[in-house]
């Protein structure tokens, strides 16, 4: 099975097959609407991947700029959104943008990698990202993050590999809630093929044992007003 890093660099179609089936009840949109009215805003999507959040918001916002380290992923985003979004390869900590150019920054299942992939310097890397976010956002703007609280779980659990990230968000002033973002598949076999590919053999075993066509997932929502 490829690593998640390899999937992000070479398996955009497989990744899109997964995330296009996520949140079949539409809870992400409702959670955002409870925090901020996105209509007519200039929005940034960091770690956009294949456009999961950018595609959701683009029809409502004034402008959408999507960034990711993977040009492979962004190619799908650009094809999906056509002229509704500008995309660019960029690191969360160094965005090719002028100061105070946006009203909302969203990021789904991405900022946490600054902690996961930098175990010795995770705090410094997260602080660099937050400083850059504050630079590019206008006063009274929002940051909204979506991060995992467990796939294959019906109630939220704090994941071991994010044990530093969760308390850091509290420490710097993010508020939080959680939602269900369950995946819906056409069959158990499709669930095994798509979710098993990304989440691994242990998840495939749970899918098989539970005959899941609806794969439960809990997602944390963290937000901060700048």
What does this structure look like?
There is one protein chain. The radius of gyration is 17 Å and the shape is globular. The protein contains ten helices and nine strands. The chain is α/β, with parallel strands linked by helices and 226 residues long. It has one domain: Rossmann fold, CATH 3.40.50.150. The strands form two sheets. It has a seven-stranded mixed beta sheet with strand order 3-2-1-4-5-9-6. A two-stranded antiparallel ribbon has the order 7-8. Helix 2 crosses helix 9 (188-199). It has helices spanning 4-10, 12-19, 27-35, 52-57, 71-81, 113-116, 122-136, 165-171, 188-199, 201-210, and strands spanning 42-46, 63-68, 86-89, 102-108, 137-151, 175-180, 183-184, 214-215, 217-225. The mean pLDDT is 94. 39% of the residues lie in helices and 25% in strands.
Keywords:
226 residues, Rossmann fold, seven-stranded mixed beta sheet, two-stranded antiparallel sheet
For the biggest sheet, the summary is: 7 strands, mixed
Structural class call reads alpha/beta
Helix fraction?
A: 25-40%
Count of strand segments: 9
Q: What's the gyration radius in Å?
A: 17 Å
- First and last CA, distance: 40 Å
- The H-level CATH homologous superfamily, spelled out, is Vaccinia Virus protein VP39
The overall number of domains is: 1
């Amino acid at each position: 099975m490829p690593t998640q890093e390899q999937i992000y660099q070479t398996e955009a179609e497989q990744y899109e097959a997964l995330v296009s089936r996520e949140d079949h009840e539409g809870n992400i949109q409702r959670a955002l609407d409870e925090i901020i009215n996105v209509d007519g805003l200039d929005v940034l999507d960091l770690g956009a991947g294949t456009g999961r959040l950018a595609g959701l918001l683009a029809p409502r916002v004034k402008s959408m700029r999507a960034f990711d380290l993977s040009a492979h992923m962004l190619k799908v985003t650009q094809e999906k959104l056509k002229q509704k979004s500008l995309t660019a390869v960029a690191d969360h900590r160094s965005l090719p943008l002028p100061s105070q150019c946006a009203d909302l920054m969203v990021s789904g299942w991405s900022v946490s990698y600054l902690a996961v992939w930098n175990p010795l310097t995770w705090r410094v890397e997260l602080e660099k990202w937050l400083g850059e976010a504050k630079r590019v956002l206008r006063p009274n703007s929002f940051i909204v993050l979506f991060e995992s609280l467990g796939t294959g779980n019906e109630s939220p659990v704090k994941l071991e590999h994010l044990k530093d990230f969760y308390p850091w968000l509290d420490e710097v002033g993010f508020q939080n809630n959680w939602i269900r973002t369950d995946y819906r598949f056409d069959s158990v076999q499709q669930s095994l093929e798509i979710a098993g590919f990304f989440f691994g053999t242990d998840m495939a075993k749970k899918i098989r044992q539970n005959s899941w066509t609806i794969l439960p997932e809990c997602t944390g929502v963290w937000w901060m007003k700048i």
